[in-house]
């Protein structure tokens, strides 16, 4: 069976009050249109067509390589949008699903069910319907004694009795391809909006003896669509709940799922534990037995096994097995932290490699550096990587010791097994096994402080007396 899809994504979405096209707004870290395309790809359809209109360049960029594109030059209704797509539909297509780019929660299983029931019944069209508690604002679907759809009544045209009806039209259809072409060609803009309505095809087909069948969605959350920011937040909430439930079923422990935020592209292993306030974004992945949180935000971060990340932020970084990050650490883009590493409180790492078994425990900045394995980096160490014009690299060899309050003035290379004394400013390269000290010589004056304070007090008193004498 040759199956095609038409995704309607032409309207900008004025109620969003945004310069961004509606279908490009993100839900759980991914544009709505990408959720739809992921679902259609999961189904293995023969063809996907996205209808674009306003701000088409951005939408076309988002779907490039994943769908064919049809252009609706004027916004003349859903029927006109499908009319724009029909020349792109494969001539041998047998079934065509029509859906919207602002309804990102629809599942592949539901659409497959819609395809299958239409095809098994030999109906001209299958209409995805939902039985909802509050049908306000939605078109009502009525069926005849044979179980075929008799009519779809929009709310503004419905009588008070009809408005009590709770079976609604979701706006998603699967058509016999020939019936779709035939009925769309007969659409007329003879209505108050002077637009071509796709829903009118149902009556056209029925009048020609080609019935439509209703197919009820099992989970009404799937049909949630986005027209404004309130609905966007609602769909985000539903999608997030779906994601956390999926990962808990896959063996992930979440202490408080309601305070755990996981983007759609995140990957988690079984036996991961997520503590309250965890936010996992982008292409983040977390290995088995690792614990993330509380209050940790990771974006595009690879976390190994048995690692711990707490009260910290990491972006575009890698954290190795058995490594501890935090509390209150910041891994900036390019941080590559090895195995069994300690990155402690108020440590910032940027564009740097930290080797296995190294400890960077307190109040340290590591930028544009290559720190070897089994290195101890003391409190208050700074890699001085920026000279006001360019960034420079610092290298510290394996098994070295960097004392507290050391400044490493890049570019600088320190060899393996070296020892940098606390308080040293390193401005020159040092080879292997080097002892590096660069302090200002200490001056100690014994039995000095009391006499110094007395002399200072006397001087202040004299200055005060002179002032009162004038």
UniProtKB/TrEMBL annotation:
Stretch list, region N-acetyltransferase: 251-470
Protein name, as recorded: Bifunctional protein GlmU
Organism: Alicyclobacillus fastidiosus
Cofactor(s) required, per the database record: Mg(2+)
Annotated stretches, region: Linker: 230-250
Cofactor note: Binds 1 Mg(2+) ion per subunit.
Job description of the protein: Catalyzes the last two sequential reactions in the de novo biosynthetic pathway for UDP-N-acetylglucosamine (UDP-GlcNAc). The C-terminal domain catalyzes the transfer of acetyl group from acetyl coenzyme A to glucosamine-1-phosphate (GlcN-1-P) to produce N-acetylglucosamine-1-phosphate (GlcNAc-1-P), which is converted into UDP-GlcNAc by the transfer of uridine 5-monophosphate (from uridine 5-triphosphate), a reaction catalyzed by the N-terminal domain.
Residues where acetyl-CoA binds: 385-386, 404, 422, 439
Active site per the UniProt annotation: 362
Pyrophosphorylase: region residues: 1-229
Domain MobA-like NTP transferase positions: 5-134
Coiled coil: none
Residues binding UDP-N-acetyl-alpha-D-glucosamine, per UniProt: 8-11, 22, 72, 77-78, 100-102, 139, 154, 169, 227, 332, 350, 365, 376
UniProt record similarity statement: In the N-terminal section; belongs to the N-acetylglucosamine-1-phosphate uridyltransferase family.
InterPro entries according to UniProt: Bifunctional_GlmU, GlmU-like, GlmU_C_LbH, Hexapep, MobA-like_NTP_Trfase, Nucleotide-diphossugar_trans, Trimer_LpxA-like_sf
Catalysed reactions, semicolon-separated: alpha-D-glucosamine 1-phosphate + acetyl-CoA = N-acetyl-alpha-D-glucosamine 1-phosphate + CoA + H(+); N-acetyl-alpha-D-glucosamine 1-phosphate + UTP + H(+) = UDP-N-acetyl-alpha-D-glucosamine + diphosphate
């Amino acid at each position: 069976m040759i199956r095609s899809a038409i995704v309607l994504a032409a309207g900008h979405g004025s109620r969003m009050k945004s310069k961004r096209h509606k279908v490009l707004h993100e839900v759980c870290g991914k544009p709505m249109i990408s959720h739809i395309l992921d679902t259609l790809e999961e189904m293995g359809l023969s063809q996907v067509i996205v209808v674009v209109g306003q701000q088409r360049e951005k939408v076309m960029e988002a779907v490039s390589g994943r769908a064919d594109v049809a252009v609706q030059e004027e916004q003349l209704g859903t029927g006109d949008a499908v009319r724009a797509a029909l020349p792109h539909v494969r001539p041998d297509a047998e079934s065509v699903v029509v859906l919207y780019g602002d309804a990102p929660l629809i599942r592949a299983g539901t659409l497959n069910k819609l395809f299958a029931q239409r095809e098994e019944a030999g109906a001209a069209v299958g209409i995805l319907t939902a039985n909802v508690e509050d049908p306000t604002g939605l078109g009502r679907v009525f069926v005849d004694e044979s179980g075929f759809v008799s009519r779809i009544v929009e709310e503004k045209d419905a009588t008070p009795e009809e408005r009590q009806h709770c079976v609604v039209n979701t706006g998603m259809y699967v058509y016999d391809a020939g019936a779709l072409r035939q009925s769309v060609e007969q659409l007329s803009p003879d209505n108050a909006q002077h637009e071509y309505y796709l829903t009118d095809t149902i009556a056209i087909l029925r009048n020609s003896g080609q019935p439509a069948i209703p197919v009820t969605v099992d989970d009404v959350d799937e049909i949630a669509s986005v027209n404004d920011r309130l609905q966007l937040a609602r769909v985000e909430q539903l999608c997030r709940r779906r994601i956390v439930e999926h990962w808990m079923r896959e063996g992930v422990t979440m202490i408080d799922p309601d305070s755990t935020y996981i983007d759609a592209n995140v990957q988690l292993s079984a036996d991961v534990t997520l503590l309250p306030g965890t936010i996992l974004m982008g292409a983040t992945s977390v290995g088995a037995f690792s614990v993330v949180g509380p209050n940790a935000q990771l974006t595009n971060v690879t976390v190994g096994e048995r690692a711990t990340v707490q009260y910290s932020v990491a972006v575009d970084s890698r954290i190795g097995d058995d490594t501890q990050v935090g509390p209150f650490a910041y891994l900036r883009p390019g941080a590559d932290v090895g195995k069994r590493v300690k990155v402690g409180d108020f440590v910032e790492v940027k564009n740097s490699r930290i080797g296995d078994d190294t400890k960077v425990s307190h109040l340290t900045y590591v930028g544009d550096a290559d720190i070897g394995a089994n290195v101890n980096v003391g409190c208050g160490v700074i890699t001085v990587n920026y000279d006001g014009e360019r960034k420079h690299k610092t290298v510290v060899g394996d098994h070295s010791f960097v004392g507290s309050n050391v400044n490493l003035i890049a570019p600088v290379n320190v060899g393996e097994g070296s020892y940098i004394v606390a308080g040293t400013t390193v401005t020159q390269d040092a080879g292997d096994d080097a002892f590096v000290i660069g302090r200002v010589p200490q001056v100690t004056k014994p039995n000095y402080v009391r006499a110094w304070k007395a002399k200072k007090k006397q001087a202040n008193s004299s200055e005060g007396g002179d002032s009162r004498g004038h």
